[in-house]
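Here is an idea for our session: we take a single protein and study its fold together. Which protein we use is up to you, so please pick one and set it down. Once you have written the record down, we can walk along the chain together:
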Amino acid sequence: MAAWVAIVRNTEALIGRRDRESERRRKRLAEPQLERQGDEEQRSAQQSEADEFGLDFGKFKNILGQRPFGWSKAVSSASEICLDEIRALFELHYENVHVDEYRHRQKPPPRKSVYKVLPQCKKDYMRKLSVRLAIPREVKHIFQQANDETDWEKLDEFRLVLQDICQGKTEVFFANQEEVEALASAIRSGPGNSHGIEVGDGFKKIPAGSFVEIPNAFKGWHSKLETAAQIYERSGLEKLTVLMRPLRSKKRRAMLDAFSKSLFGKASARMLAEQKEWEVDEMFDKMALVLYDQLSLELADEWSRKGKANLPSSDTNDLARYFLIGMNIGQRPIFENICANCGCFLSGIVNAHDGLSNKCSGLPRNKDGHAMQNDDGSYQANAQPPLRA
């Protein structure tokens, strides 16, 4: 009886959570999309220029000067797409934790969940066919199962970790003495910041405006940067903790919205949710979206510093369309067959008789040029030898 009661309670919890998720999704999709100030002026001020090869991509996009069809629906669905992406990453993480827990068994029991990631999608994530976002190790340590998402203590730990993620906290290693001297020079050229040691120009691994954490160094004004640089040079450290996008930076400030900024206050996750009258599930969704945005920003920032392709969002739609057109054009090979009579490569349309085609149909013949027929007079279409001698 007790086992049956437990099964019923788990089922009710899953169904209730699924219903709340559907209700939150409908609520988000029903919210009107407000026009941001300056969007019209920004679109009118955009000017296209030809690149070094004389290609002006701007003349191929947004020719009518109006928003694409279904723009409002696409904007309202953008958060849901991002949320589904980060949700899939969490579900794969929970699945791995579940498998590790029952590793001693030959076949682990199935894990019950409100969400489901299709097997083909799991395979794509595991094979890593392209660059994808990855949940940081600190976040994985906090959330070990789906029920942790409704734990306020876990969410508050998540809030503290998000503070580091939003500021791009990472570790930078130094290969030789030249890099150490270059960083010391960049520290001396910093603008001076009372909130941290802000780095100036001159070091490629750490962009100007970042904060470096040097043990026993002052987080003070410009007059103390020389002291901080000397302490760093004498420390002999092979790595430093760096904030790539500090909250209080003068040159490279963190890119945050109103909700992301509220995570840096003294209020806990539960207090923030009570101020907005959010349930615990909705609070996790908001924080998960912040995680997705910051991971995407970190990846784009890394690509930009490495000189990789990084295009504005306004170009992606047209680039994808022209890319698909090019794929369709090159889908058919130039030479599709080989002539069974002379061994010539064949291309184009059969019996087109033009300069783009050399295909023509004919009777199956043997090496002597005679038509190959059956006893009833029909032609032996499958009996033609490859290439005449």
